[in-house]
């Protein structure tokens, strides 16, 4: 009888040990870093970089998350846009137009936290609408400037001479190129700390600095800011309407 009890106790202890081992195994599996998963966002970006031969910077800014279960379709920039919809980033192309470098700058903050809906009066410059804007660069100084609203510009475009005024050092800017209808223009790209139009603002906004003579005095408010919102430009009332997405 005593021997049977001892055997039963040993069996129970064995089961408990096995259960503990199983639970510890589950905990270890759950604790594995996301980048170790072949479907993690980091792994997907590294795979694309190896396939297409470009450099990725800022992987340490990625949060631990899996990539979308469906692979984005289209060319490389379109695929990267789909994968990085929750992040601010800069694409730098070589003279032939191929992606040379991807710089992940930061995670996007929720739209509600960074903006409020607003209707902002514009002024006319010929056929164009202008709006008063406040830019903040790396030096943290608020820099008021009037920008032309240009939905055809992929980013905020400023003359190169403004870079130092906004606090950008040469090391803080990356070389890039802009493809125009006639030629290729060398530019320098970076990230503004914030951009404010009326009561509406956004942080970590990509900016491109062009040779002064190419812009001929123009300063453009492009889609790196405008695409953060649902935008309407009322031609009749001269109003820019920005709504949270």
TrEMBL record:
GO function term, MF aspect, one: peptidase activity
Keywords: Hydrolase, Protease
Record organism: Methylocaldum szegediense
Matches recorded under PROSITE patterns: ASP_PROTEASE
Keyword match Protease: yes
InterPro entries: Aspartic_peptidase_AS, Peptidase_aspartic_dom_sf, Retropepsin-like_bacterial
Protein's name according to its UniProt entry: Aspartyl protease family protein
Pfam family, one: gag-asp_proteas
GO biological-process terms attached to the record: proteolysis
Superkingdom of this protein's organism: Bacteria
